[in-house]
Specification:
The protein is about 50% helix and about 15% strand. It is of the alpha/beta class. The N and C termini lie far apart (about 100 Å). The protein is elongated and about 80 Å long. It is a single-pass membrane protein. It is found in: Cell inner membrane.
Amino acid sequence: MHALLLRFFKVLLMSLGALLLLATLLFVAGNLWVLGKTQARIEHELPLCGAERVGIVFGTSHWTRSGVRNPHFDARMSASARLIRLDRVDHLLLSGDNRTRFYNEPVTMWRDLRGRHVRDEDMTLDYAGFSTFDTLTRARDVFGVERALLITQAWHLPRALYIADTLGLEVTGCAVPSRPVRGVWRLQAREWIARVATLGDLYVWGREPYFLGPLEPLEIAPRSWEAWVLDGAAVEE
């Protein structure tokens, strides 16, 4: 009897070990797959980011849990304003969480960018970007976006690009410059988990966005110099 129990536990431990090894291999393979499919389309120098009509800016909290200003938020806003000035993008789709009236990422981004001299007509707010998946699905199905520059941190871009690819969007990634931040390794580690979860969302569970709504194509205003050229052409006619 004792020998049978010992043998049973030995087989059980070996089976659990094999399952753990398989799960680890699948976890690593999933991450390497996403990274391999997207890394070549991530640019780390803002002036070299590919020019697109639309830049999608992913929302994040303005403040950290410790009550200080979120450096990741600042980096995204600074990069977005600079990309407008560099004419790398013409219009910014600001997508973030607005589940309650006390928390509104899109409006916070809009206010910050106005303070950085980005014109109101160069920004559209998406109040239902509750996740990276929701942001990109709504960009396609609500705002009529087909091509875009994705603006966020380098560790976030592979997952965002992969989701966009699966949705049929033509995208490239522009990694925002970031200074060293304490605890960023936690976000990077969480991103490894999120990439694998995203593969499940896309290929296993058939995830759907939390909220869509009617089509509202972006109204992209001409740049100041374009307006001047158009006005000049109208006068000549």
